[in-house]
Design goal:
The chain is an all-alpha fold and 412 residues long. The chain is built from 23 helices and no strands. The relative contact order is 0.07.
Length: 412
């Protein structure tokens, strides 16, 4: 986010770009010329009238204090990540049906060539893995519009190619929305991902889409349904793919399904089933023989250990979770994508809270923030943990914990 030390014009440009507006579109919205906007953003022209600043802020759907460089204190964790305007834009994208344009009297839109779409989807995945969720949001809003049109009128590929890209877009949307606490929207996006995957030619994409549906069901409290779905699809997929002689990609997707099933079982309080599924995932990881990232699963021996620790957290066994963490090679953990590392340290923060080690909980939380700040700044779960750490700390919290609390607006 733009800070108080940066010129106001830079902050105007930041929020204009974040809202997906060109200088011309923004100029039209506020009744100014494009040249006026350009001069403001470059600092050639000063913004010295508060009435003009408030008008710009209203058009950008932000508080005037944000343009003045005085970021308002904010709760819960959407501040510093996706804001409600961006979440609403994704919601509207999910609710739009461009493919019915001929019935809705919508103006025809030229489809984006499939090779170009593929590059945009890969870019969105990479942004997600780095935890750059505002970048993900901007990409999703465009891709949720472009991929349905490409499936109807494919250029440079087939309709099946476009459907396979579409399922990935819906999967990213589902995962991000779930992290933000938007469980119903996450379920809608995941359900769309399943439908799109079935229109493609890659059965493994349907397998990965299943994990998004199951995770959304978990967020809705439907633990048994999530468990059953993951396990059934995992066994069907690996049988069809050839069992232990399956391709590394198929083994990765199979393993990812087992891991998510284990998490659903843990949330349901079924430790025996959770252990069994984790053991099966471990055998699959050993067959794979290394940490890989087929279909953006991050599946491998290290990720199995991360899920084993996370399952203990969901079962309320924080001490066991921390014991598993101690056995994870630091180098292997460091090789995982930033989002996965931060997610793990967030789980270990919860484990520390469970065993009453609040000082260590603060250290793990700060480590999670250093790996992927949006995992902390975005997620209501993380902001709740900051609250718990502050309230249970004897005396003053550590300086870096206090700074993080201030930045997410957790200090009164």
């Amino acid at each position: 986010m733009e800070s108080e030390t940066q010129p106001m014009g830079r902050r105007v440009a930041y929020w204009r770009q974040r809202r997906g507006m060109s200088q011309q579109v923004f100029a039209d919205r506020i009744g100014k010329s494009k040249s006026w906007v350009d001069k403001i953003e470059r600092g050639v022209r000063r913004l010295d009238k508060y009435s003009v600043i408030t008008e710009l802020a209203e058009s950008l759907s932000v508080d005037a204090a944000q343009l003045l460089g005085r970021e308002p204190r904010r709760r819960p964790g959407l501040g510093g990540c996706l804001d409600q305007v961006e979440v609403e834009s994704i919601r509207q994208s999910l609710e739009r049906y461009e493919r019915l344009g001929r019935f809705l009297e919508a103006a025809p839109i030229d489809p984006t060539p499939i090779p170009e779409l593929k590059g945009a989807v890969n870019y969105c995945w990479l942004a997600f893995e780095k935890g750059h969720y505002p970048v993900v949001a901007r990409s999703l809003i465009q891709l949720l519009r472009d991929t349905p049109l490409a499936e109807d009128r494919p250029i440079g590929g087939t309709s099946a190619d476009a459907a396979e890209l579409m399922t990935q877009v819906y999967q990213i949307a589902s995962t991000v929305l779930r992290k933000l606490g938007e469980a119903q929207l996450a379920w809608l996006a995941a359900d769309r991902a399943i439908s799109a995957a079935n229109r493609g030619n890659d059965p493994l994409l349907a397998g990965i889409a299943t994990t998004r549906v199951a995770n959304a069901l978990r967020s809705l409290g439907r633990y048994q349904a999530a468990l059953d779905l993951n396990v059934q699809v995992a066994h069907g997929l690996i049988s069809e793919a050839g069992g232990e002689s399956s391709s590394p990609a198929a083994i990765s997707v199979y393993g990812a399904l087992l891991l998510q099933g284990a998490m659903a079982a843990a949330l349901a309080g079924d430790s025996t089933t959770s252990d069994d599924l984790l053991d099966s995932a471990s055998r699959a990881a050993n067959i794979l023989g290394r940490d890989a990232n087929y279909y953006y699963t991050s599946f491998g021996p290290t990720n199995v250990m991360l899920h084993r620790a996370a399952a203990f957290v969901e079962l309320g066994e924080g001490g066991d979770a921390l014991a598993v963490h101690e056995t994870i090679p630091p180098a292997a953990l460091g090789d995982l994508v930033a989002e996965r590392r931060a997610h793990h340290y967030l789980d270990m923060t919860r484990a520390c809270v469970q065993v009453g080690d609040i000082e260590k909980a603060g250290r793990y939380l700060v480590t999670a923030d250093r790996n992927a700040p949006a995992e902390i700044r975005c997620r209501p779960l993380a902001v709740d943990l900051i609250d718990q750490i502050l309230h249970r700390t004897k005396g003053e919290p550590a300086q870096d914990v206090r700074r993080l609390a201030e930045e997410v607006g957790a200090l009164n």
